[in-house]
Request: fold
Amino acid sequence: MNTLFSAAPLWKNNGLVLLRIVTGLLMAYHGLEVFKPELIKGYAEWEVIKKLPYPLLMAYLGKGLELVTGICLALGLFTRIAALFMFIDMIFICFKVGGGKFWYEDQHPFIFALLALVFFFTGPVKFGFDNLLFKKRKTYY
Reply:
């Protein structure tokens, strides 16, 4: 019980890994829409997207980013780069596409953006391919 009220982290590394994997899988799930051309064409018809250069390409790019960044996060592969692109994509969706009502209507992309920042700052923590590829150095958290 003392642990629950303590300021010390509780299951920090494993908890971050669990969050990273679940967030990545959810983001990849949203990105699977890239394989549904009729749905993508519908996104390209949105007034906000139509104002962008090459609206159909932009719709594919946004969904493609969701798929790729989600897979990378779930695997812990190029975690910080994936998190940065996920953050940019979700902030664009929240503020440009959704109108910036993140306190109510656009919470979903805004929460994904906040989670992207968590993984940008923490990296893959453990159980990620980044640790194998870049020979994990000693961490101080």
Observations:
- The chain has a mean pLDDT of 90.
- Residues 92 and 98 are 8 Å apart (CA to CA).
